[in-house]
Design a protein that fits this description.
Helices cover about 55% and strands about 5% of the residues. The chain is mainly alpha-helical. The radius of gyration is 26 Å and the shape is globular.
């Protein structure tokens, strides 16, 4: 009980002594093993999850101080798992190599669940220091596995044998994915190249951490405070939310516009204070680009150089060729072909939109030329003029709680899922804002998993919206149910007030829930098959967005936050009529980022200047001056805070081709978007298999053919040309 006063070495001696006292054992090996199990049990982050629902993370007991020792112990245990595989002298088989590899690292995976929460949802300066220290250590650990020659030799033997004597389909897929993963990460390099490959990964891991922490620091550090006489144009609920944000930061009586999209976007849309709009816009779009110690430009240069050097070790000319080889696009040329097919129509539409906005400004005698901080404001005025549609009026019918109910309804109709709220305190959560629901099969009542929702922005939480899993569905080692979460950054309302969101934010809410449904639908046996192909995994979530605008959802769940009256049919008609409004802006800001991502990784980074490259590339693309990329390069976290979306940001567009094409399948069905036969095919081929089936094959099984681009162009209101 007093061990916290001693250094680590003294702690261990005391634990040894306790083991001898308790067990009567004096054999060193047994003492060490028993001591290790006691130490593991004492760190909650390593412990098996307990409680109902198959066990859940002990979020209420996690401490930042436990992270480092838990990671260190988890890595040690994981490497022991690998040693057990490589010590086996029997001929490598699926059973003695692939299965134990799938089981390996269970304790470390549990630690990473807590690590992810502390990184994304409740980061602190203390945690960021640990993250900074551990990033290169974790990289070295991963290299010890990916470069383990004996392990790879066993994997390669199983892979080669499976080519002549195929395994079951999902086992074959597992072996293929594992072999490719190791081969793509340098498993076949010679020892010197392996050493350099590992060193590059270690260096990159530290830069990625620094990049993302710089963004978070700029999001926390730049807050625009308003006085009461600077609120013109803003709605009452928004004003109350901004007042709460200020109070939370110790600025009672003021109103805070935080440096996140969910706070910035409505302000730019409605505020009549042009100079303040400019200030808020500049704060947001200059994140990571302020010439201070949080500036990311040098980080980007170093990342690009290191990525190019690393893939050169494997014989690739550029990072994009290496990255896309096992994606649906297969190579950067195919990805660029798609983006270039859409880009001209997108910027042409922006020109039309700007002309419409400038006409409104001129008729109002505003004496301005449209600038980026004006785009949302005047687009809203054009929307009112062209479609008599007021976004703020629509917002009165978009309550977060009702939208959540709407998503549950869709999940019930399409996936046969039932969501039941869990009483507070029954399942541990990491913040008081988090709510939890149990997910069951509506017919059988079988438990499928738990859904966690963390809806509000807060200090220490990264911006944006995302979905994640704490535990994925598998059956190979006993059935594991899903623990999935959605995370948003809605502005928290004043106490007792409804959370009202924009149509765009409601769409994003449905989008992220689509990821969660993908998790819950999983029918795979093996953990690796729960992964995804980056230009395919956004498809399922983008498709779910379509149900927001279905009559069933609109008529049941879009009710006024004060009166409870359903949204008027006339307003619904206006929403649907304006469905392609502002698609020039939406498509161009996204595509500019996707094109920049690809072009940066195809360029020679030897003497690259990021600011100049960004400016020159956008000029070559004829980027409209009235808007900017959705993610400017210095804060492009998708691409530079890790490798998940590097040369893969185009994947949203690639997936949207599938989305538009698949949506037509529903639109053509007898019962439209709630047609049971199409829904059953959707779940069977596009959701349940996860990555157990090649995505192109899965889509053909659903649709009967490959997807076509025409539906995408039509959905965005662009001219349709055969590709």
């Amino acid at each position: 009980m007093y061990t916290h006063h001693f250094r680590k070495k003294n702690k261990t001696i005391i634990v040894y002594a306790l083991v001898i006292m308790i067990t009567g054992c004096d054999k060193k090996k047994e003492i060490v093993e028993t001591t290790e199990s006691i130490q593991e049990a004492s760190n909650i982050l390593l412990s098996e999850w307990t409680g109902p629902y198959g066990g859940t993370p002990a979020f209420d007991k996690m401490k930042v101080s436990d992270i480092k020792p838990a990671l260190e112990k988890g890595m040690e245990l994981n490497l022991k798992d690998i040693d057990a595989i490589t010590a086996n002298t029997d001929t490598p088989t699926f059973e003695n190599t692939m299965l134990p590899l799938e089981k390996s690292g269970a304790a470390l995976n549990r630690v990473f669940t807590y690590y992810g929460i502390l990184s994304s949802n409740i980061s602190s300066p203390e945690f960021r220091e640990i993250q900074k220290e551990m990033a290169p250590i974790l990289s070295e650990f991963r290299s010890k596995i990916s470069q383990n020659e004996i392990l790879f030799k066993r994997i390669k033997t199983v892979y080669k044998n499976s080519l002549s004597k195929p395994l079951e389909a999902d086992q074959q897929r597992l072996v293929q994915l594992t072999y490719e993963q190791f081969a793509m990460n340098g498993a076949e390099l010679d020892s010197e190249k392996k050493k350099r490959y590992a060193a590059i990964n270690k260096e990159l891991s530290a830069i990625y951490t620094n990049f993302s922490n710089n963004i978070l620091a700029d999001e926390e550090g730049y807050v625009t405070y308003l006085n009461k006489d600077q609120l013109a144009g803003l709605s009452e609920p928004l004003i109350k939310a901004y007042a709460k944000a200020a109070t939370d930061r110790g600025q009672d009586g003021k109103y805070a516009i935080t440096n996140t999209r969910s706070s910035m976007d409505p302000f730019l849309t409605y505020s009549t204070e042009r100079e303040l709009r400019k200030k808020v816009w500049k704060n947001y779009y200059s994140r990571g680009d302020n010439g201070d110690d949080k500036d990311n430009n040098e980080n980007i240069v170093n990342i690009l150089k290191l990525r190019k050097e690393r893939v050169a070790l494997l014989g690739y000319d550029n990072y994009a060729d290496w990255r896309l080889q096992n994606r649906m696009a297969k190579n950067p040329e195919n990805a660029m072909k798609l983006m270039n097919a859409v880009w001209p129509a997108a910027i042409a539409r922006v020109k039309e939109e700007v002309n419409d906005m400038q006409a409104v400004a001129n008729s109002n005698r505003d004496k301005i030329t449209i600038e980026p901080w004006d785009y949302r404001y005047y687009a809203e005025k054009v929307r009112k003029k062209k479609y008599d549609l007021d976004s703020d009026e629509v917002k009165q019918y978009l309550q977060l709680d009702k939208l959540t109910e709407a998503m549950f309804y869709v999940a019930g109709e399409l996936f046969n899922f039932k969501f039941t709220p869990i009483a507070k305190g029954k399942v541990p959560v990491f913040h008081e804002d988090v709510k939890v629901w149990e997910v069951n099969d509506k017919t059988s009542g079988d438990h499928i998993g738990l859904w966690y929702l963390d809806p509000f922005s807060r200090e220490g939480k990264r911006s944006g919206a995302w979905a994640t899993t704490y535990r994925s569905h598998t059956t190979f080692d006993g059935k594991k149910t899903v623990l999935g979460s959605n995370n948003s950054n809605f502005v928290k309302p004043a106490p007792g007030e409804a959370v009202l969101v924009s149509w765009d934010d409601a769409t994003t809410f449905f989008h992220e829930f689509g990821h969660a449904l993908h998790f819950f639908s999983s029918e795979v046996r093996y953990p690796i098959l729960n992964g995804g192909v980056r230009d395919y995994t956004e498809f399922q979530s983008q498709l779910l967005e379509r149900w927001l605008s279905t009559d069933n959802v609109i008529n049941k769940y879009l009710v006024h936050y004060k009166t409870g009256e359903p949204i008027p049919k006339e307003l619904v008609a206006k929403i649907k009529k304006a469905a392609t409004f502002n698609q020039g802006f939406a498509t161009t800001e996204y595509l500019a980022s996707a094109l920049m991502d690809m072009k940066l990784h195809l360029a020679d980074p030897s003497n690259i200047d990021i600011a100049s490259f960004e400016k020159e590339t956008l000029a070559e693309l004829n980027m409209p001056k009235e808007l900017v990329m959705r993610h400017r390069t210095p804060h492009f976290g998708h691409v530079f805070s890790g490798e998940g979306y590097a040369t893969a940001y185009y994947g949203y567009m690639w997936a949207d081709v599938l989305t538009s094409d698949a949506a037509e399948s529903f639109a053509e069905a007898p019962d439209g978007f709630y047609d049971k036969e199409v829904a059953n095919r959707l779940v069977k081929y596009l959701f349940a298999p996860r990555n157990a089936m090649d995505p192109a094959e899965a889509y053909r099984k659903f649709r009967g053919r490959d997807a076509k681009i025409e539906a995408l162009m039509k959905d965005r209101g662009f001219p349709v040309t055969k590709q």
